[in-house]
Structures are given as C-alpha cells and as structure tokens.
Write a structure and sequence with these properties.
This protein has about 450 residues and is an all-alpha fold. It has two domains: about 1-190, no CATH class; about 190-450, no CATH class. The chain is about 85% helix and about 0% strand. The chain is built from 18 helices and no strands. It has helices spanning about 1-10, 15-40, 45-80, 85-90, 95-135, 150-175, 180-190, 195-220, 225-245, 245-255, 260-265, 265-280, 280-315, 320-355, 355-365, 370-405, 415-440, 445-450. The longest helix has about 40 residues, at about 95-135. The model has no long low-confidence stretch (mean pLDDT about 80).
Amino acid sequence: MLTLALNSLRRRSGGFAASFLAMFCGAMILMAFGSLLDTAGAKGVDPASESTLNVLGLVVGGWGLLLVTFAVTSTLTLSVRQRAAEMALLKNIGATPGQITRMITGEALILAVAAVSLAIVPAAYTGGWLLDRLTANGQIATSITHHFGGFAIHIGYGVTLVAATAAALTAARRTARMSATASLLDAAAGDARMSRKRVAAAAVFLFLGTDLAVITATAMRGKDDFEPMATAGPAAIWFSIGLALLAPALLRRVAAWLEGPLQRGGAAGQLAALNLAQRTGPMSTAVMPIILFTGIATGTLYMQATDNAVNAASGITETADYRNAETTNMIVIGMILLFAAIMVVNSLVATTVDRRREFGQQRLIGATPRQVLQMVAGEGTVLAATGVLFGTLASLVTIIPFSIARSGSPVPHGNILLYLAVAAIAAALALATSLAAAHRTLRTPAIDAATT
C-alpha cells in the first residue's frame, strides 16, 4: 500500500495540492508560534516575558490543532472524492476497505511530512517577525532574542501528523464503505446528506459556542478588562465551526432560496442553479472557510470596538495585563483569519480546477467561455452569500453577549462599515478565486479538457 500511495502521489500531484497547502500553512503558523515557547525557555528571559510567550504559544497550539484538522479533513475528503474512478477501479480488482484506508493514510502522512519539512524555514522567519512585533509593542523585554528549536519542530510535526491521520481516517472510512458504483455517483453529484457523527459534532460545537455566549452575558456582566473577552472571543469560533460542519445542508437551503433569481439569469444562471442543486456536497467545501472567516472577523472587530468605546466612555486607563490580553487576542485571531482566508482560496481553486472536464463538455455542446464564467460567477455568489450569512449569525454569539457584559445593552459599538468590509472581503475572495481558477481552466482546448 505504501508503494501504491507513492505512485498515486506522483501521478496526481495536482489533486493533492489543496491538502498539501493546508498542511503547509498550518504547520508554518504552528511552528512560528511554537518558536515562542522555545524563546520562553531560553536563558535570561524574565518571568513576565516568559509568561506572555508561553500563553501565545500554547493558545495558538490548541486552536491550531483544531483548525488544521478541520481544514485538512475538508480538503482531503474533497481530494478522495475527486479520485472516485481510481477508487472504483481498486475496489473492482479486489482491494479491501482496509487496504484503501492504509493507502489514503499513507498518502496523507507523506504529504504531512513533506509539508512540515518545507515549512520550517518560513516558520522560523515568521516566528522572528512575531517576536519583533511583541518587542515593539512592549509585550516582552527588548533583550530577548528569537529561538527556533525543539518545541517548534515537535509542535509542527506532531500536530500536522495527528491532523493528517485523523483527516485520512475520516475520508477513508467513508470511501472504503461505499461500493464502486456509489463512489462514482458520489463524485459526480455529491451528497448533501450528512452522517450522524457529523451532525453530532456540529451540535457539540454549537452548544459550546452558545454556552460561552450565555456565560459572557451573565457571569461576565459588569466585569472589567479582558475577562469577558476570554469567553466571548472563543464563542464565535466554536459556533462558526459548528455551522461550517452543517455547510452542505445550509448551502442546499440557500441555493433553493436563490434558485428563482438564478433561473432568470439565462442559460448560465440555469446551469448554476442545476449545479448547486446536484453538487451541494462538493461545493459546500468552499462555504466552510467563508463561514469561519466572516464569523470570527466580524465578532472580533465589534467586540474590540465595543470594549474600546466602553473604556473611553468610562475613562478607564488600560492596564499592562489588558494590553497583553488584547495583543494576544488580536494575534491569535489574526492567525485564524489568515488561515481561513487561505483555505477559502485553496478550497475554491481545488473545486474549480477539478471541473476542467465538465467545462470542456459544456463548451463542446455550445456554451461559450463567457457563459461558463457567468455560471461560475452565479455559483460563487451563492457560495459567498451562504458563507457570509451564516458567518454573520455565528458572530452574533460573540457580539451581543459581549456588549451586554460590557455596556448592558445588546447593541454593539462600531461602525457598520466594519461589517461591510468583512463581508466584501469574504465575497471578493470567493468570487475572484472562482473566476480566476475558471478562467485559467478555460485556457485548455475544449476537446482536450473534455477527454481528461
């Protein structure tokens, strides 16, 4: 199976690009923050600086494990779906579910090792940059120098390998249990139905987000400084993950709502509506990171705007602990948002490029390149609308409880332009990426694309 995995990686290197990029970016971020733990353990570091560095390294390591696993699982599942013909052939010639599982797991582990190894140098530079920012903000002493060593390496390899293994087993289990015919049908149309385990996992994350929201609005009410942030900030993250897991069902509902307007958009709109109805499962992969990006960004920006406004109105002077917590919060959230933005681009490119054959067949039966691009634009609009809509919903479990806790009112502070900017960035990422990938795919002659 190891030999088969290596051969598969060589033959379909492009098909594994999305999973590799998810692992690479996740490992780079994890090791960059892990290097702060190496720095904290070096000689001559004062206790205050050591505490700040340890908190950043440990918090990001925890969130990193969750997010990297989430991202790698979605991209690896998409990659396995795109190889339906190969999986069907293996099953037809006698491959057992166990052999397919070992092959997929072997591919994932090879990708993980390669991704982490290549991410070491960028991670070292990124870690140094983070330390410079902390020093410039007065978070740590200027005498501290950056170290990149055992903690960073172990976190990078450990978390990424665990995430890759978990993702591979999840993707392989679903594929291995299908018949050859079912695999081909699933790849062609996808399946908007979700397993009970996925629904249960979504329910757990939604509960965690809701629970933190309730705690923020009740137990944290009237508290000063960063205590409400400690519960309000993660609430949107948990809730966003829960909604992202439900992306196939959410996309199906929004696509049904928008079917009428799409149908009135001519042939391209009708094709977009048909694709959204029949390929909800594969397309929902792109919705997941949009929900994360919108929910976390909106929640964080309005939480910070509300906190700043309340402090200013009360004449409160920010303490050193408050500034440390604020900086830590913004750095962690920035890391998550960067990773989510990368995954938006990554997922959409992987989904769109894999449709080369479909685009070629459409052109052979009379569709013009412009109509294909209009179809992709219609699909992208629905994907962006779904992600922004439910990302906005997720942000409310942070915004409203935090506003109640800090000001006594459910109405947050902050200009509407903050939200419009987040929504515009999320939509622009989705549409620009889809159209750019489709435009590049259309460069292939129709006859060649249709026969690949």
